[in-house]
Amino acid sequence: MDLETKALLLSFGTVQLPVPKVGGRVSTAGPGAGGQSVFFQSGERMVRLSVVQHSPLRLEPREGEDACAIMLGDREVAQGRQVQPLLHCPEQAYITVSERCIYDCKFCAVPKMRGIVKSRQTVRQMVEAAKDMGRLRAISLTSGVETSPQSEGARVAEI
Fold first, then answer.
1. Percent of the chain topping pLDDT 70
2. Cα-based angle 97, 101, 106 (whole degrees, multiple of 5)
3. Which of 77, 82, 73 has its CA nearest to residue 46?
């Protein structure tokens, strides 16, 4: 996929799946909080697209393991493969420590979701589980702000 194709896919930001995704992990932070997404790789480039019922883009399976194409109407926009995330992202344990937030940023659904606050032990268990899968290349911690920026910073630093 060239840069122009990647820009086109990102401009839509969404994709429709041939079969609705049942279960699976839901994003717990940022603009995609509460929703599901897929990672599509073509060549060395990758995009993350939010899964919605009605999108101009459709992901269609092709022969081969994880092989697929992204269609816009009858036109094939890109061929590649679907990449499975470890924890939220491919090859990453991307963990939201506090799934709660005192702020109300207009782009973020975290305050409305009122999720959990993970303990140090829970985060470490999640990282160990990701490591055991054999594809872990990075650990990323993010967090809402449960009570104050100072206490959240201290919590994440302790982990």
1. 90
2. 120
3. 82
